[in-house]
Amino acid sequence: MAGDLSLDGVRGLLLDMDGVLGVASTPLPGAAEAVTRLHAAGVPLRLVTNITAMARARFAALLRAAGFPFADEEVLTASVLAAAWLREERPGARVLLLGDARPEDLRGVELVGAEEAPDVVLLSGADDSFSYGTFNRVLALLRGGAELAAMHRNLLRIGVHGEELDAGVLLLGLEAATGLEAVVFGKPAAGAFRAGLAALGLPAGQVAMVGDDVENDVIAAQDLGITGVPGVGKSTFIDQLGVNLTAAGNRVAVLAVDPSSSRTGGSILGDKTRMARLAVDPQAFVRPSPTGSTLGGVTSMTRETMLVCEAAGYDVVLVETVGVGQSETMVADMVDMFCVLMLPGAGDELQGIKKGILELADLVAVNKADGDNVQRANLAVADLKRALHLLVPASPNWSPPVLSTSALTNAGLDDLWAQMAEHRQRMTASGEWDERRRNQQVRWLWALLEDHMRADLRGSQAVADALIEAEQRVRNGTEPAPVAAAAVWDRYTGRDDRAGHPVR
User: Fold this and answer.
1) Cα separation of 364 and 341, whole Å?
2) DSSP 3-state assignment of 83?
3) What gap in Å lies between CA 184 and CA 154, rounded to an integer?
């Protein structure tokens, strides 16, 4: 049966429930038979579902009664994932559980009432307990220092009467009101998929996710722009991040931009040597390109190359700019997420604001947080967080996080990637992801028009003749540069009679 799978290299499956195997717990025709055939063929699989209203054991028993041969451990619910995280990452935490989740899936977790000063407020699926009064109490708890967590971000769910609002609507409201970012366990959070891969014992490249929801089940190519101050270690950072991603089964493309000499026009194109591991990784593609005459830290063909990489099946496209400068912001109009790398103790916080870098950033990472730099990195993180408070976030649904990382020791890079996945989910849920892509296309239109105008201007014989005369007048001091430029432009646009007299 494994050989009957349509995708080459797929050895295991992660399956969604609603819309794939059934609707509102009613099996779809042929679904049980298909799962039975997969089981009989020895194909490892796991059911990954955000269902919370039913304990895993009961849910698995109902699936078996409906003809699905799932063992309890083959069902990964958001409740089970939340319990595992709380036991491992927050041992001893007092947890207030709200919503429809069953306490039996939270064994080993101390559940308390709102009056008992919980350490964590955990939201599950929406039910009648989600009242106005309840959430005002939750608001007070969060303002008092409690951590916000949620089993999923589902905005809608399928009920017996059709679509219904789910807990994600309320979660977004709490985050907006408090400025907090919830820890989320269910799809499409990265932890849900990592748990599925761990249960299967297979790398991501050998596992297919079968789902009906593009936002929650299907992971598309994520374009990420990375820029940073000189010496921040962009290439080493990308090399380590890329190796992490390929090890997890992703195909990674890196578009690195090297500066071109303003004197000779040449470029070193040395990024492959600085990304030694990624350059030889069969799951990666590294392409250095010169800036040429293009400003903004990218090349004139960066957008086209990104499209080619996505079409070629690369899961992640990383764009490395020349480096932070006043004009090094064009990449923010090309990518889905703009990451800025900073140095610890370099005093770049206010400079970042002045240059307009931080106001464009979706994520800020203080790199080289290792050895003697750890304390300085922590101070830089605190300073940058204060600096970002002076700026209005570009999105009402996302406040740029500030993290410390070390590409040398691989510290903090998993957290950084988790934040990137969370950013994608937030933007997708709010509709901003698609809107950002549409705006990118409009900006690309204008960029192409400007490129065509510049090329036409430089190729015009009339302009070439006018420039010789204009440069001589400016050099001799007989005509100021603005006047000379206006005359050349009039010659190019035909606003004079080619004899130097303006057309009236």
Assistant:
1) 6
2) helix
3) 11
Does one domain contain both 264 and 384?
A: yes
- Residues 330 and 296: beta-carbon distance below 8 Å: yes
Give pLDDT, residue 264: 36
Residue closest to 172 by CA, chosen among 192, 147, 143, 150: 150
What is the enclosing helix (H) or strand (E) of 255? strand 252-258
The predicted-structure confidence for 329-380, as pLDDT tens digits, reads as follows: 566 777 888 888 888 865 544 444 444 677 788 999 999 998 888 888 888 8
Asked if the structure places residue 435 within a domain, the reply is no
- Quote the pLDDT of residue 55: 93
| Residues 17, 25: Cα–Cα separation, whole Å | 8
Instruction: Give this prediction's pTM.
Output: 0.50
Q: Is residue 215 part of a domain?
A: no
For residue 19, the 8-state DSSP code is T
65 domain residue, yes or no:
yes
Q: What is the pLDDT of residue 322?
A: 54
Q: Does residue 261 sit in the same domain as residue 397?
A: yes
DSSP 163-218: EEE-HHHHHHHHHHHH----EE-STTSHHHHHHHHHHHT--GGGEEEE-S-HHHH-
- Residues 57 and 93 occupy one common structural domain: no
When divided into structural domains, the chain yields a total of: 4
Q: What is the DSSP letter of 373?
A: G
Rounded to whole angstroms, the Cα distance separating 486 from 78 reads 65
Q: Output Rg (C-alpha) for the chain, integer angstroms.
A: 27
CA distance 361 to 405: 16
Domain that holds residue 274: 220-430
Q: Which of 64, 48, 119, 52 is nearest to 89 (CA)?
A: 119
Q: How far is it, in rounded angstroms, from Cα 17 to Cα 406? A: 39
Residue 131 sits in the same domain as residue 227: no
> Are residue 275 and residue 152 in the same domain, yes or no?
no
Residues 196 and 250 reside in one and the same domain:
no
Note whether 408 and 478 are same-domain residues: no
Contact 300, 451 (CB under 8 A): yes
Cα-to-chain-centroid distance, residue 109? 31
Q: Which residue has the tokens 């998929």?
A: 193
Query: Are the CB atoms for 254 and 242 separated by under 8 Å?
Result: yes
The pLDDT value given to residue 495 = 62
Q: Please measure the distance between the N-terminal and C-terminal CA atoms of the chain and give it in whole angstroms.
A: 80
Q: In this predicted structure, what is the pLDDT of residue 382?
A: 87
Burial of 362 (0-12, 13-18, 19+ CB in 10 A): buried
- Whether residue 202 lies inside any domain: the answer is yes
Q: Which residue ranges in the chain fall short of pLDDT 50?
A: 1-7, 219-222, 259-270, 291-299, 323-328, 348-355, 498-504
